[in-house]
Design a protein that fits this description.
Oligomer: single chain
Number of strands: 20
Shape: globular
CATH superfamily of the largest domain: Adenylosuccinate Synthetase, subunit A, domain 1
Distance between the termini: 60 Å
Strand content: 15-25%
CATH architecture of the largest domain: 3-Layer(aba) Sandwich
Bound molecules: guanosine-5'-diphosphate, 6-O-phosphoryl inosine monophosphate, magnesium ion
Largest sheet: 10 strands, mixed
Strand order of the largest sheet: 9-7-5-2-10-1-11-15-19-20
């Protein structure tokens, strides 16, 4: 077999290389700044990204799909982003959806329409989509629902997924039956055949699955033309961004460390790597170009869906955090489960991600509490365990050792400087910093961009 590419293969390259690989113009290259969730999601990543996006040239998503829900509040207007990078509202910023993301095109356009009504303009000049990103079909979403029903019937519990088709799409990617944006950009007949084969495979596994393949293909043909001008070879795009003129590049993590497919509370996790490795594989960039890695954590803990949650408070404290913190999922509208801050998981997330600094959000929600607790260690049979348990049955059983702080009982929502925070709040923040061993760079005291105390 000849290893030379045929003329036909060559024609299929829609994006000829735009850079020569001989010598980068900017020898040291531009490093990317990364924002990652350090708990079970919804830590306030959108807000941190928005803050940094005002000074960024490019904001990238590298994994996940529209299971994410990122809130950004600007000039009292609230935006929620699911597939679009939160940088899309910054008119100076290019938004890039990388190869590691899974894209539901109807969901993407619904999100664009909704945000256009809120005043988003000119997005089509600022959005780039990798041709290697996998496509989420409507039937992936239907299968997500069927799998949840099956789990409930077989095991008496499901995962509590967002039913956005994330698991089935990443499963197709791993089993090499998935379809990518580059396939949609190429021969549509070929694409249709592969989609129909995939539908057949699913229907043999789930006989009750009803799919209108022709209807879905018709819609996809229209979406294909709408995204065609936005599609690029993502590897060349990122190479250019890193080695071209000096640029500030930001990566917006979706989901979070404890939902990571490898390191999270498996099987109650999502299906992508939401930790730092996902930045390299989801964008096609070398590890040497990872710069600052900012971990985002609430000043307490929340979780949506099922799974172990050692510091959960199924009592008045949990209810207060839920109501004061408006802890309702952005994507599914489900109530978030609430509990004390857990430093075992923050340390674990730091071991994997190597945070250079932490953003501690929602400190203001703790303002009314008489007493605040922080989980500092786990015990099994009265003995401290020196690691974060992999097995969910073990994690369910751990006893949490807490450190107790007296509350500051002062409204912090108008505070903008460290020195103006109540000493008891300062003490709480310093404790977290010292225990995790990572500096806290920002403290959040409200929803909007301005409500961030910058420490250094
Ligand atoms: P993400 O998924 O990590 O981007 O977070 P979500 O947007 O899902 O959830 C975070 C919620 O907390 C949103 O409603 C934010 O507007 C809100 N939020 C973020 N930071 C703060 C803060 O410091 N204080 C308060 N009160 N709300 C915040
Ligand atoms: P952001 O980016 C909170 C949770 C779901 C479910 C599990 C699997 O807004 O922080 P999936 O649909 O991904 O297969 O669901 O993961 N989950 C999230 N929880 N925030 C998120 O994203 C989440 N993304 C997924 O609730 O328990
Ligand atoms: Mg969220």
């Amino acid at each position: 077999m000849s290893l030379n590419r045929s003329a036909n293969d060559r024609k299929s390259f829609t994006n000829p290389p735009s850079v020569t690989l001989k010598r980068p113009r900017n020898d040291s290259g531009n490093k990317v700044t990364v924002v990652l969730g350090a708990q079970w999601g919804d830590e306030g990543k959108g807000k941190v990204v928005d803050l940094l996006a005002t000074e960024s040239d490019i904001v990238c998503r590298c994994q996940g799909g529209n299971n994410a829900g990122h809130t950004v509040v600007v000039n009292e207007k609230e935006y929620d982003f699911h597939l679009l990078p939160s940088g899309i509202i910054s008119t100076k910023c290019t938004s890039f959806i990388g190869n590691g993301v899974v894209i539901h095109l109807p969901g993407l356009f619904e999100e664009i329409d909704k945000n256009e009504k809120k005043g988003l303009k000119g997005w089509e000049k600022r959005l780039i989509i990798s041709d290697r990103a996998h496509i989420v079909f409507d039937f992936h979403q239907a299968v997500d629902g069927l799998q949840e029903t099956q789990r409930q019937a077989q095991e008496g519990k499901n995962i509590g997924t967002t039913k956005k088709g994330i698991g089935p799409t990443y499963a197709c990617k791993a089993s090499r039956t998935g379809l990518r944006i580059c396939d949609l950009m190429a021969d549509f007949n070929e694409f249709s055949t592969r989609v129909k084969n995939l539908v057949q495979q699913y229907q043999s596994m789930y006989p009750t699955l009803k799919v209108d393949a022709d209807g879905e293909l018709k819609k996809l043909k229209e979406y294909a033309e709408r995204i065609r001008p936005l599609v690029r070879d993502g590897v060349y795009f990122m190479y250019d961004a890193i080695h071209g003129a000096p640029k500030k590049i930001l990566v917006e993590g979706a989901n979070a460390a404890l939902l990571d497919i490898d390191f999270g509370t498996y099987p109650f996790v999502t299906s992508s790597n939401c930790t730092v490795g996902g930045v390299c594989t989801g964008l096609g960039i070398p590890p040497a170009y990872i710069g600052d890695v900012f971990g985002v954590s609430k000043a307490y803990t929340t979780r949506v869906g099922i799974g172990a949650f050692p510091t959960e408070q199924l009592n008045a404290v949990g209810e207060l955090l839920q109501t004061r913190g408006h802890e309702v999922g952005v994507t599914t509208g489900r109530k978030r489960r609430c509990g004390w801050l857990d430093l075992v998981i923050l340390k674990y997330a730091h071991m994997i991600n190597g945070f250079t600094a932490i953003a501690l959000t929602k400190l203001d929600i703790l303002d009314v509490l008489d007493e605040i607790k922080v989980g500092v260690a786990y015990k099994i049979n009265g003995k401290r365990v020196p690691y974060f348990p992999a097995n969910m049955d073990v994690l369910q059983e751990v006893e949490v050792e807490y450190e107790t702080f007296s509350g500051w009982k002062t409204d912090t929502s108008a505070v903008r400087k460290w020195n103006d925070l109540p000493p008891k709040a300062q003490n709480y923040i310093r404790f977290v910093e010292n225990h995790v061993g990572v500096p806290i760079k920002w403290v959040g005291v409200g929803k909007s961009r301005e409500c961030m105390i910058q420490m250094f």
